[in-house]
Amino acid sequence: MLKIGDRIFESRIVGAPLAGVTDIAFRRVIRGLYNGLVCAEMISSQSLVRCKSKLPYAKQIISECEPASFQLLGRKCDLMAESAKILQGLGAKQLDINMGCSVRKVLRQGEGASLLAEPDLAIEIMKSVVNAVNIPVTVKIRKGIEKSSDGAVKIALSAEDCGIKAIAIHGRTAEQMYSGESDWDFISSIKKRVSIPVIGNGDIKTPEEAVTKLNMSGCDGVMIGRGILGNPWILRDSDFLDRKIPFSPVSSEEKLKTAFRHFDFEIEADGEDSGFKKIRKHLSWYIKGMPMASVMRDIIFRTRKVKELKEKFAKYFDFVKEFEIEYAKEKLSLFNVEQLFQKYLS
Description:
The protein is of the alpha/beta class. It contains 14 helices and 11 strands.
């Protein structure tokens, strides 16, 4: 169980906000598999207040994707507070402040993880957002900007006094981005020094890693980010393992059926042009580890039309089913696999 303010979640597993990934279509896929907390991709406070461009997106998540948390990006206290009020007015039940994004464009604007170098401003932002609403507010940080973690520690230790209800911590610096290893010792050290819930983040690719990191860090929850790419089942399976509920590995057939559903959701949500551009990367993630995946991935990104890609992906689906039948009979050599692939995808 994970408690954030007055919200109680049965699962201690949290889906991370991933820009360009955890959109409406992907969240529809997840909702069919898992009912724990999944954070929405970050929303610029400026775009929400000044041009209202994210209002339809926010309304849609609120109407069909609960439980959710909305992550706000910005460095101006007034805009952050006003955007928080807007989201609460729409019906949002939880907000998160982004102090962890390490994308260069965001850092150049003094937003995201750059705030770790300005802890006094970060504290004022937390106070402004908390005072603007009466729903739980959390904050997501990294270990630091470069080598020093002083700013991150100050923010983490000040968060509760600002009214923050939980802290999510990615154990890498902004400079590292996703290189090296997440420092779970740092995450654990913060957990020991605060009384509000701490959610650890970084390097969780399997349910076993999720539960191991939960237990070794003492965290109240773990957040899974890149591990969900092509594998939304990791949220459900990590929760099952944590609660000692038996589960079976996901079959290739279920993966491909889910990828097809995701395909339809993406086109429905964003239209053919935008949806088509988005779904290709998702399809390439779904087939990771499957036979002839690298060749199929090249086909996916070379295909230019929705109908054509659907047809090719359906044929790949048929190829995988026959491959698994023949593989079980131990009749396939590398040459035969390539020959079988050509039979379907030539």
